[in-house]
Amino acid sequence: MQTHGPMAFARWLAGAAAVIGAVALIILRPFPFLFYPDLPHVAFFGRCMYVLLLCCVLCIFRIMRGPTAPDRAVAIDILGIVIVGFCAVLCIPTGRNWYIDVGIAWALQSFIATLALAKYLEGRSLDA
Q1: What is the domain extent for residue 110?
Q2: Residue 113 DSSP label
Q3: Which of 79, 106, 89, 82 is nearest to 33 (CA)?
Q4: Counting beta carbons within 10 angstroms of the beta carbon of residue 76, is it exposed (0 to 12), middle (13 to 18) or buried (19 or more)?
Q5: Higher-confidence position of 94 and 52
Q6: d(CA 71, CA 73)
Q7: What is the pLDDT of residue 122?
Q8: What is the pTM of this model?
Q9: Count of domains observed in the chain
Q10: Of the ranges 20-24, 65-69, 93-97, which is most confident?
Q11: How confident is residue 85, by pLDDT bands cut at 50, 70 and 90?
């Protein structure tokens, strides 16, 4: 695989344009919140949602692209952490505390799944 040349530069340029576009979207257009529009920091929560959404897209890209199984396992673990972040950010503007309960359950499940995947990738059985 060639690492230099016009195709590599074009891929780099497309990636840079996508990241710059995402950052511009985060800065210029807050996420629409329909929960409590009179909340004083609604624009901040909207921007947090955009940042978490961007993190999800980047994690899914790393899961699909690889290049190795441990890279994919780390991306899956980070995706679980991002989902816990979504739950934490949604708890404040909605005023519903059960989002935190969902986030805690998701974090525990993600931790156990990561341990099981690491043991599987290591080649050992799950009960040893």
Answers
A1: 45-123
A2: H
A3: 89
A4: middle
A5: 52
A6: 5
A7: 83
A8: 0.70
A9: 1
A10: 65-69
A11: very high
Q: Does any domain span residue 5?
A: no
Selection from 51, 49, 15 nearest residue 35 by Cα = 49
Return the amino acid letter for 121: L
- CB atoms < 10 A from the CB of 45, how many? 19
- Per residue, what are the HEC states of 23-35? HHHHHHCCCCCCC
- Is 100 among the domain residues? yes
List phi, psi (to 5°) of 62: -70, -35
Question: Are residues 36 and 93 in contact, defined by beta-carbon separation less than 8 angstroms?
Answer: yes
The one-letter code for the residue type at 25 is L
| pLDDT value of residue 1 | 47
Distances (CA, A) of 118 to 82, 98, 109, 115, 123: 20, 30, 14, 5, 9
Query: C-alpha angle 100/106/111, rounded to 5°?
Result: 130
Q: Does the residue 95 lie in any domain?
A: yes
In a domain, 4, yes or no: no
